[in-house]
Design goal:
By secondary structure, the protein is α+β, with helices and mostly antiparallel strands. The protein has helices at 32-43, 49-64, 81-84, 119-130, 174-190, 203-212, 282-293, 299-314, 327-330, 349-352, 354-370, and strands at 2-7, 13-23, 46-47, 68-77, 102-111, 231-232, 244-256, 262-272, 278-279, 296-297, 317-326, 341-348. This is GTP cyclohydrolase I protein.
Length: 371
Amino acid sequence: MDMFSYCESCLLPFSIRCHVGYIPSGQRVVGLSKLSRVADVFARRLQEPQRLADEISSALQSSINPAGVAVALQCSHIQLPETLNCKANLKISSKLDMQGWVNASVFSSSGVFKNEDHPFWDDFLALLKFKGIHMEETDPYHSLAQSWCPLRSLDILPCNGRNLTNVKFSPKFGVTQTSMIDAVTSIIEALGEDPSREELMGTPSRFIHWLTNFKKSGFEMKLSRNSLHMKTTNGVAGAEQNEMHTELSLPFCSQCEHHLLPFHGVVHVGYFGSNEGEVIQRCILQSLVHFYSVKLQVQERLTRQIAETVYSVLGTGVMVVVEASHTCMISRGIEKVGCTTATLALLGRFSTEPKAKTMFLQAISNHTATG
């Protein structure tokens, strides 16, 4: 069962694949929808993986009174934007791709499953393996790494924005961040949670740290051939003008300006070289992607901005394809887990030469197929 919950340490959504096994008692088998509803009830609150697994297991044990319940969760937590941008092999597939995320597997059990040597455990794990889910290397009783939330490693103030008179802030912290923390603390209270609960101490500060990654910069990117550090390919000047160059799977993480939730994926750039046979280094294109993605964005504008910036320098032909998974689509509203969105921008020769466009799309397809 695919679902989402929200990390209590930083308020960011995390992905869950929930697997439930149970041994009926008295030949009583429950409707499958009940299992999903019970899991969803506990996922729709501030959570951490092990507690979520324990709550699902306990609720099923008390409500349907089986001989035993086993719950296995595969959870994925998004990384900080700068971490995702370092994952050069990040790609998006037809399913929700969590490469570059922090992954954790947790187990919880009751009844006969409490005995780790019981053969039912082997049956449960074998059924998961039959579905391509390999969890044998995970200890069901000591499975969750302490580094589950990437933001927990930050040096965070424990005050949650309350009683700040005796707290010394660093000069760069500022009044603005303090008021933001206070606002997030109020939101947590409005959700019916206690901000002073040990697990929530520091949560507002971590969430603000995440948001400030997407603070709009006070300057615009102005590029020239010199600033792009372009290099000339070997051969006679102008000989490379008709050759298409591609840089595929440039990773990014951005923040949806409509819902303040992250979306992430990869950018593919195709372009024709200049008359001098110049090409743009991959690291420069990655910096360009990062510049436009680390702010409040929509995917369509991000795609167009990257294409226009490259085209303003080369002036020949540029095509940009952005593939992304939107947390706002899969953790709220329509909740279509596994959906991805692709957007295209074509300028110059790519907009007038269908063959060039087809060749670039085929290059992306071949790259994705080979990994």
